[in-house]
Amino acid sequence: MAKRLFLLHLGPDTVDLDEMRESLDLGRIATPDVDPEVLELAGIEITRTHKAAGMSRKEVEGAWAKVCRKAWKAKADVFVSAPGFFDASSEQAALALDGLPGFKVVLVVTSGFAVQPPAAWLSLVKEDRVHVLPDNLGAEQLAAQVARIALIEEEARLDKRLRKISRRRKQVNKRLAA
After folding, report:
1. How far apart are CA 150 and CA 94, in angstroms?
2. CB 69 within 8 A of CB 82
3. Alpha-carbon span 172 to 124, nearest angstrom
4. In degrees rounded to 5, what are phi and psi of residue 143?
5. Closest Cα partner for 93 from 105, 103, 102, 104?
6. Which distant-in-sequence residues (6+ apart) come within 8 Å of 26 by Cβ?
7. Cα end-to-end span (Å), the chain
8. Rounded-to-integer distance, Cα 177 and Cα 13, Å
9. Domain coordinates in residue numbering, the chain
10. 141-164 exposure pattern, b = at least 16 Cβ within 10 A, e = fewer
11. What pLDDT digit, counting tens, does each position of 31-89 carry?
12. What value, to the nearest 5°, has the Cα angle with vertex 67 and ends 64 and 70?
């Protein structure tokens, strides 16, 4: 079974998922059914900045796990915007990715082209699964770009499968000819 996509948006700025939801639905991309506050808490939990935010660890504990569970229950490709993850260290990024087994993680970074994408994430995600977009995109434009990225990933998956089937077909034809 093919892994579902987890399109993780990292950007210094937040995006309004409510504005994007309709366009993402057209591309068959779901968003986890969680409040924006939970996504903010997940960013605080993963980056371990709860003290700076004036919270206890207990208040933020489990927020990212909740997002991951809701994403899994969506049974579709999923888009999550977690701008709080942008400044995560390598260990923190690895911790966030550990909660996503069964997903193929694709990073969508809207830091623009003047600011480098976060190196901690680049070391953990394959280079061809990192997409850097301009930082001045509106919600509709970002949703269209995310849908385009999902289609690119689907095309790559289908091309890989077609190559595999072509190899099998050649082996079968050789056996039949013998």
Report:
1. 23
2. no
3. 39
4. -60, -40
5. 105
6. 147
7. 33
8. 61
9. 4-177
10. ebbbbbbebbeebeeeeeeeeeee
11. 888 888 898 999 999 999 988 889 988 999 999 999 999 999 988 899 999 888 888 89
12. 150
CATH number of 4-177: 3.40.50
* Each residue's pLDDT tens digit, 82-110: 888 888 899 999 999 998 988 999 999 88
- Show the tokens assigned to 15: 């995006």
Q: What is the 3-state secondary structure (H, E, C) of the chain?
A: CCCEEEEEEECCCCCCHHHHHHHHHHCCEECCCCCHHHHHHHHHHHHCCCCCCCCCHHHHCCHHHHHHHHHHHCCCEEEEECHHHCCCCHHHHHHHHHCCCCEEEEEEECCCCCCCCCHHHHCCCCHHHEEECCCCCCHHHHHHHHHHHHHHHHHHHHHHHHHHHHHHHHHHHHHHHC
Q: Which two tokens stand for residue 51?
A: 């003290």
User: Can you tell me the distance from the alpha carbon of 125 to that of 137, in angstroms, rounded to the nearest whole number?
Assistant: 23
Token readout for 163 is 């190559």
Residues 143, 147, 148: CA angle, nearest 5 degrees = 115
Nearest residue to 9 via CA among 96, 95, 131: 131
> pLDDT value at position 8?
93
pTM for this predicted structure: 0.85
Share of the chain above pLDDT 90, in %: 33
